[in-house]
Amino acid sequence: MSRFAGQADRLLGSFAPEHATPPAHSASFRIAFICTGNICRSAYAQQTFSALISSSRFSGQIEAFSAGTHALAGQPIDPHPGAIFTREFGQLPTHRAQQLTTELVAQAELLLVMEAQQRQIVLRRYPQALPRTFLLTEYVGICRELAGAISAPGPAGAALPARLGELTARAARHRSLGAEAPDIADPYRHDTAFHEKVAGQIRSQLDLLMSILDSIAQDPS
């Protein structure tokens, strides 16, 4: 168990299973990036994805936030991923860690965790979130397969949030396509080289996700 898991369990106590109903339809599609302490992997993923979205044609249609299964609220992003983000985007990350809660789960149309253990924790606490909870690598892998066969799910002219919601629902019905999806390892307390490796893995997945969005945003010819 990580330092965050141990400290947060002592502070927060044990979690009883909670129910989180799917979010109501909104003008934008909300994605939650989740890891353990919400200062390394999920923080970097959310900050990077938000920066990519804000500079794309999808700005205003997709939103992202992050949280941790055992987060210490208010902690800033770890210096290593923070420095990587600043190098890549020329700006300081704006991030404070937060604990995943019933309210946050209810706000997300899609929950992307970094490793299988985190998915187990999320689903034990919020079992109704199963259809919209995936490993990041799992979701990207499944959607690449599905997007290749159905370039634009939903009716022609449908807004991107509706199309992404339909793609996510289809992904939940085809989980076997992502059965071999790997975890993204926790870089906390590792050296700079390991943080660079993990950030590269996350960025690669996010770039693929952006390509998937491009694919499903196109109306069939």
TrEMBL record:
GO terms for molecular function: protein tyrosine phosphatase activity. It comes from the Bacteria. PANTHER family: LOW MOLECULAR WEIGHT PROTEIN TYROSINE PHOSPHATASE, LOW MOLECULAR WEIGHT PROTEIN-TYROSINE-PHOSPHATASE ETP-RELATED. Residues 29-212 form the Phosphotyrosine protein phosphatase I domain. SMART domains: LMWPc. This is Protein-tyrosine phosphatase. InterPro entries: LMW_PTPase, Ptyr_pPase, Ptyr_pPase_sf. The lineage of its organism: Bacteria, Bacillati, Actinomycetota, Actinomycetes, Propionibacteriales. It comes from Propionibacterium cyclohexanicum.
